[in-house]
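SEVERITY: medium
COMPONENT: batch folding queue
REPORTER: lab tech (J.R.)

DESCRIPTION
The queue accepted two submissions in a row. Attaching both inputs and their returned structure tokens so the on-call engineer can compare them side by side.

ATTACHMENT 1
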Amino acid sequence: MLTGQYQRSLDSKSRVTLPAILRKQFDEMVQFVPRKDALYGYAPEAFEAWVSSLNLNPRSRDDAETLLRLNSMAATVEIDSAGRVALGKIDETARGQRARLGLDGDLMIVGAGDHFEIWNAEKWNEKFNADDAVDRLESLLFVE
């Protein structure tokens, strides 16, 4: 299970070093999928399980189109020997995604169970520290 939040910065080649504790749960590859606010990173097996869990029927024209779009957005990126991933690779499959997500400078890598998410640090801090999010979590954890 991938948990925690870790602040990182991009290097001059648009690479980010994954936290060692998360990196240990991956082999040599990460499947990246750009989402609305963040870049989601899956181990290849977890990505396959996630896609399967969507219960899309490849014989349905609409589902086949959705599968095609999803798989075409995904980028397979190697984890180098220093534990870095090159975020510039996501622009090869979905031009402009890194800029759209604000993935430059300071980043937050957040464990999210079966995957991790890479956020612009400022956007993450706004989301994580929002009063309604804090209140919602408190109401789930403690009965008043």
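ATTACHMENT 2
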Amino acid sequence: MFSGIVQEVGIIKDLKTRNGLLELTISYEKLSNIELGDSISVDGCCQTVTEIKQKTFIVQATEETLDKTIFKTYKVGEKINLEPSLKMGDKISGHLVSGHIDGTGEVYDLIEEKDNTIVKIKYPKELSKFIEKKGSASVNGVSLTVIDSNIDGNCIFSFTLIPFTKSNTNLGLIKKGNLVNLEIDLIS
């Protein structure tokens, strides 16, 4: 279980396909106490740490993960959001996030409004009844509040990126047409 509050933006150092799995080697600087077998959110997707080396760890994405997430689009050097799993008693600043991706969305539009950016995401129709105005959604593992949903009668929702989120997650790097991982709010 996660909170959707990204702890660090890591970098993909290596990608290898091995026995039907995609192994991602990810470098990090700030995370501490990572252990073998730990669950870690990688762009919102719960993964298991299978190996640890100096300031890098490896996770193995299965075929199911590759089918449901943006992992298949990753390239070496790409920046990804990282969050270690919650421990009992941890503060939940975002919302409860399982790390089970419900689908991918596409960045439909980015509208600059002073220091903030309004982001519009086109999402799969089957998620329509779960994404509501003022509800929560996770985009690349970031807990966000939905401004509006079903914009102009289409499967598009919007949220605001504040300067802190732009600077401390990979959402500050997204462009129109980029794919993102989506997880609907567990309560919805």
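NOTES FROM REPORTER
DSSP finds two helices and twelve strands in the chain.
No errors were logged for either attachment.
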